Amino acid sequence: MPLSKFWPNRTLLWKDWRLTLPVFLIWTAFVTFISTFTFVYHLVSYRAVGGTWTGEYWHGFSEVYRLLESSAGLTGIAMVLLVIGLGVVSLSLERERGTLSLLVSMPYARREIFLSKTLVGLGQVGLPFIANAVLMTLFLWANHGVNFPFDVNTIWSWAVHSVLVLTFVLCVALLAATVSGKTIGAAFLALALLLFPFGMYMLVAMNAVQWEATSHGQGLYWYWNDLANDVAIYLTVPTWLIDFPTVVAVNSTAVIEGNIVERVFANRVWEFLREHTYVLYLALAGLSFGAYALAQRWFARSQLEYDGELLALPSLRPLIAIGFTVCGAILGGAVLPALLRSDGWSRQFAVILLSYASSAAMAWMLVARFLHPSEDTRKKRTTTPLATLLTILLLIGVVVPVVYVATLGMPLVGGPEQPPEVQIVPFDEQIVTLLALAEAVMERRTAALVVDDAAPLVALSNELARESPELFGLEQALIARLAARREALRQQGETYTRSEIQLVFISARVRQNSATIVALERGKLYFAAVLPGQPEYMGWEAERSFVFVKQDAVWELKEHGVMMGKGLPPNEPGGNL
Predict the structure, then answer these.
(1) Of 380, 409, 438, which closes a domain?
(2) How far is CA 294 from CA 56, 182, 494, in A?
(3) Domain carrying residue 233
(4) 414 is a domain residue
(5) Do 434 and 456 share a structural domain?
């Protein structure tokens, strides 16, 4: 069988390329602006001051670093939205213009038509990243004397990561475009599919809050809340572009009556994924191919007479109607009771039930109004009002017990003993005290960049923890190196007057004789002489892990290090100043 059978017609490729060219140009300009243009702008700003490293320009390079680490926030959201537009326009626009029926009547197989649109979309997604990665690499090599917080590997890792994630987004957008016959409908459907895992988690969490407020108790849901949040973050693929370091740094715990409850098995899975991220990309590639295969199958079965309608696949109407009604009921059950709160458990319970029922009815009516495309279709409906009412009551009968059981039906407080894979640690007595010692260690280290203290260093300790002798020896040597850097900076006219360090708790993993605490370090070094246009201080953020080992009844801080951050912080060897 010739390979040409699996390659679309060049005429189709050229037609699809021209159709999506306006969106592609906007997409290319956006990627270039956030990457190469931003990089060059901060590089020029750095050169404008004669290559003097200051907090202002280091902050500029860290902005590029955040993008390359896929933790740029709103920038990642914008990339997802633009790629959704790129995928939706290629198919839905032809549906609305009526040119798709003409295209299908020509001697082209539907498989060939859909493959052409997919290949053009993949090319338009990947080309801007390849071009900008090449440009940034050239600029990096041309300025090899600058101490950048990233290297060539970081640039190309960002490009490959972004293309893989956005390939999945494109396939979901094409899938949505086969389901909906309108451009705006396909765009909203694609966004709903991409955000569904985290959106459903939020809906269930909001309902759990209402049930807890009604019964004044803590149900089983809160035992699984943090784990459900972590799973939802992983499954919501757009978060991989919004803040990927946070995605892979999840640590499943829960706080139950002042205790930290760790999900040991789940955290082993997260740790495995952190060490083997290629598994995530393989799973993402499989999901992308699955979305493409499903979209191609549905496109082959779509009926052209529904082009321009909100739903182009009538067979999916029952599924979408039920799903929309259930989501509407859960949303109403979370929002309306908060607006219509009443005194008494029985009254509030009645308010919640009425909220479920009214929200489900409203959602069902909206579905009936918008999913039936024409008057002829409405006349052919055989569903009676009584059948509609019975369906709504059936949905309410399913939703209410599920939410009740998930939140209160099996209460954790006063319930059965915890399974063996769960470790409970008193929060106030241990974690806070251990974190206080870790913060004191980082304050002492950072202060070496500010003052020359002639007093001898001593190992730090508090009522529950202490610094191990091995770590104290390493800290002494490191503080001496930081003091030498301080003197070298002083000779260049750069000095700092004071420092600030704060550790913000992120997660803890505590076992019988060991504990690992992850915290966000927020540091500041204040400049002694502030030049016009220069900030008052240099700030940084970095995620650190602190490892404690229990010796008798005392926790010893054995080691600590940077996990993820916006470059290497100044209080580390080789950190940027």
Answers:
(1) 409
(2) 49, 19, 61
(3) 196-409
(4) no
(5) yes
Kindly state the greatest CA–CA separation across the chain: 91
Distance CA 51, CA 482 (A): 22
Q: Are 65 and 564 in contact (CB under 8 A)?
A: no
How many CB atoms are located within 10 Å of the residue 9 CB?
17
Select from 72, 58, 92 the least CA-distant residue to 30: 72
Question: Domain tally for the chain?
Answer: 3
- Check which CATH number belongs to the domain holding 484 and give it: 3.10.450
Q: Give the pairing type, strands 465-467 and 496-510.
A: unpaired
Beta bridge partners of 559: 547
What kind and span of H or E run contains 132? Answer: helix 110-142
As a whole number of angstroms, the distance between CA 538 and CA 524 comes to 6
Question: In terms of domains, do 389 and 437 share one?
Answer: no
> What are the tens digits of pLDDT across the range 393-433?
555 555 555 555 444 433 333 333 444 344 444 445 678 88
* Segments in 422-509 forming alpha helices (H): 432-447, 469-491
In a domain, 373, yes or no: yes
Residues 16 and 162 in one domain: yes
DSSP 530: P
How does DSSP classify residue 304?
Answer: G
- Between CA 388 and CA 367 the distance in angstroms is 12
Residues 440 and 383 in one domain: no
Among 186, 220, 244, which residue terminates a domain? Answer: 186
Size of the chain, expressed as the number of residues it contains: 577
3-state class of 523 per DSSP? strand
In the beta sheet, which residues pair with residue 88?
A: none
Match 């956005």 to its residue by tokens.
Answer: 166
Instruction: Specify burial of residue 309 (Cβ count, 10 A radius: 0-12, 13-18, 19+).
Output: buried
* pLDDT the model gives residue 172: 94
CA–CA separation, 26 and 181 (whole Å): 24
Query: What six digits make up the tokens of 179?
Result: 């389901």
- Tens of pLDDT, residue by residue over 488-500, are 777 766 788 888 8
Tokens of 366: 């909206």
Please state, in angstroms and rounded to a whole number, the distance separating the CA atoms of residues 54 and 310. Answer: 55
Using an 8 Å Cβ cutoff, are 176 and 190 in contact?
Answer: yes
Residue 569 CA to residue 129 CA, distance in Å, equals: 28
Same domain for 164 and 212, yes or no, is no
- Which tens digits make up the pLDDT trace of 430-453? 788 888 899 999 999 888 888 766
- φ, ψ of residue 501 in degrees (nearest 5): -135, 135
Tokens encoding 385: 């009002």
User: Could you tell me whether strands 537-551 and 514-527 are parallel, antiparallel, or unpaired per DSSP bridges?
Assistant: antiparallel
Q: Between helices 317-339 and 345-370, what is the axis angle to 10°?
A: 140
Picking from 190, 185, 192, the residue whose alpha carbon sits closest to that of residue 307 is 185
Contact 83, 173 (CB under 8 A): yes
Residues 173 and 248 reside in one and the same domain: no
**pTM for the full predicted model:** 0.68
Residue 249 CB neighbours (<10 A): 18
- Residues 327, 452, single domain; the answer is no
In a domain, 403, yes or no: yes
* 524, containing H or E segment: strand 514-527
**Residues 431, 290: one domain?**
no
Residue 420 counted as domain residue: no
